[in-house]
Input
Amino acid sequence: MKTAVSALELLRPRTVREALVMLRDDGPLVPLAGATDLYVALNFGTFSATRFIDIWRLEPLRRVTTRDGVLSIGALATYASLARSRLVRQRLPMLIAAARQVGGVQIQNRGTIGGNIANGSPAGDTLPVLAAVDAVVVARSASTERRIGFDAFYSGYRANVLRPDELIVAVEIAPMEGRQWFRKVGTRAAQAISKVVMAGVRGGAPHVALGSVGPVVVRARAAEAALAAGAGIEHAVAELRREIHPIDDVRSTAEYRLTVAGNLLRQFWAETDARP
Output
């Protein structure tokens, strides 16, 4: 019987090196790991690619380590493994908060942080966290490795600067002082696509990033500057409303998202105030 996957080709490398050589010599190939989004697109016929490379078994890409103070999270680290990680809990607890709100248990066991980054949905729950901490995406090919600042990684809606022969192998986060904060607003507390999602760090200078308010994750630089200058929260909210561009869709309206984003910024600022 012919199915939606009958005409697809799947390559299965045994090592990271073999995967990178396949991407170089046998491409174009679409990396496939947890496939929590990709399978849905294939099933609905909205994904046109027919050739894939299965990287799920590449264990080196699951490691969570630190080196010279930098937290390195392998691209195949699942949401469930992030939630269990001692290093992530110590260094980036708001990423655990985000991981625990991605889908249900099945999705958390299969979905990967590298997949969330590559998929590039503006509603991706981990993306504001990574934007807020100035994460660096590590991309590797058979011949080179480069580090791409998170604010330069996306070139448009679900589009990024990866080359066809490159694979996301890790995301790196340098130490960041301050109180971390994460909130997701959706139809339900879990198993729902976000209407607005915000991550923030309040330290020497505030860092704020939002999802579902534009074609890509938004780093709220103007609102950050207003907060850092002591201009007051309402001025910062006004700046935030000017720098985000939500849309009307089946989940919400643009005006609702503008209102919620402002409320989340107020909540972030109030709940991270260290004064007695």
User: Anything to note?
Assistant: Residues 254-271 form the longest helix (18 residues). The longest strand covers residues 194-202. The chain is about 35% helix and 25% strand. Residues 2 and 13 are 26 Å apart (CA to CA).
